[in-house]
Design a protein that fits this description.
single chain; 157 residues; alpha+beta; 6-stranded mixed sheet; 5 helices; 6 strands; globular
Length: 157
């Protein structure tokens, strides 16, 4: 007789609230999932209105709207990109309204990559204010990469 009462009380109890770290992780995971599913509206809903996205090329610094225009053809063809985070660090401002993070990414087209950025709390949720996508270069390869970039730009390293 006590078991049904206990079960009813547990079922009626509110679910524990997610930690801020879990909330940020859920936003980032959903953002990546939206890209993989080519869900353009869901993907761009995760940005603040004044967000900035920085891509891997030094020329790729876009406002949210510029990035949206650049990315639209990828979403329109039904296949954007697929990044899977396999390691993430998150920190918060003292007032809990700003979060910054870095994440190790597995990507099918770039190999290992890294994302880092800033989220701000807007209402009850988190939105990306800045995202920086990069491809970490092992130190042992850096000299060769620097030389290749210099050659590409017509300069001597």
């Amino acid at each position: 007789m006590l078991a049904p009462l206990l079960f009813a009380l547990l079922a009626a109890a509110p679910a524990p609230r997610a930690t801020p770290t879990a909330e940020v992780a859920a936003v980032l995971d959903d953002w990546h999932a939206a890209a993989a599913a080519a869900d353009e509206a869901r993907y761009f809903a995760h940005f603040t209105k004044d967000a900035v996205f920085m891509g891997t090329d030094g020329t790729e610094r876009w406002t949210r709207d510029q990035f949206h225009a650049w990315a639209r053809p990828f979403f329109a063809r039904g296949k954007a990109w697929s990044f899977r985070a396999h390691g993430r660090n998150v920190a918060f401002s003292r007032d809990g309204k700003v979060a910054w993070f870095d994440e190790a990414l597995a990507t099918p087209n770039m190999g290992p990559a890294r994302g880092s950025g800033v989220l701000v709390r807007e209402g009850a949720g988190w939105r990306l204010a800045q995202y920086n996508l990069s491809v970490p270069i092992p130190n042992a390869l850096l000299d060769g990469v620097v030389k290749r970039i210099a050659q590409e730009h017509g300069k001597k390293p």
